[in-house]
Amino acid sequence: MKMKAGHSQLEPVVLILIFNLCFNTSYLLTELQVCKLCSGAVINGTTVGEFCSASAGRIDGRCCFRNDNTTDPEHIIGLDLSNCSLTHLEDLHEASTALMIDLSHNPIVNINDTAFQGFVELNYMILPEDVVCPGGNTSWSKVEVKDGNRICEGQKNVCNQTGQPSMNCPENSLCAPYGPGSFECSCADNYHGYKCLREGKFPALQVFGPLGASTVVISLLLWVTQRRKAKSL
Predict the structure, then answer these.
(1) Angstrom distance (rounded) from CA 51 to CA 137
(2) What is the pLDDT of residues 129-152, one digit of tens each?
């Protein structure tokens, strides 16, 4: 019985270790997936390659990572998916921190308006000539066609520069950029709820208190049930 009890106590620890291992492995695969959408690696002579070299970045596949030990080692600053025979865009949100993206020389017809939502740091894009810049020309400081490519440079902030609520957001809220031509609204201080109409602090205790208590009760019941099963073996 003692051996079985000890075994039952080790089970949660083993499960936690397995979960963490699977989670970390899945995370790494997800981070690397965007860098392997196309074979080969970033070439030094390309636009992204020169940018990566000038930024002292680290190349891995088609990605350029910020080579800085004090920040996130998986922080992508450049993505080169040029000449990859892409007809449509896969999920590129692993590269949402990129400053530069090259999608030239691909048979892409158009880009979904939501494809680059969250790419707030994106400042330079190279696209096939017939593809419109994400968010439209008004979302960029400079748009030009050069050598058969469309270059989108200098992402504009679609929100007001005054720090005051934007006309695009409801009253009592603030506007924040959310990628080319996109924005998101967040409630100003002391406001919450639908369209930020409720004033006062969010009642976190009243909302999450019962939820947390019920979670604890269910966890205890499951633990007691599993412990009884272990003892009966």
Answers:
(1) 23
(2) 999 999 999 999 999 999 999 999
**C-alpha pair distances (Å), 206 with each of 55, 203, 211:** 49, 5, 9
CA distance 176 to 157: 8
Answer whether 150's CB lies under 8 Å from 127's CB: yes
Phi first, then psi: what are they for 140, rounded to 5°? -130, 150
Its sign, for the CA torsion 83, 86, 89, 91, is negative
The more confident residue out of 210 and 25 is: 210
Q: Which helix (DSSP H) or strand (DSSP E) does residue 193 occupy?
A: none
Give this prediction's pTM.
0.69
SS3 string, 200-214, reads CCCCHHHHHHHHHHH
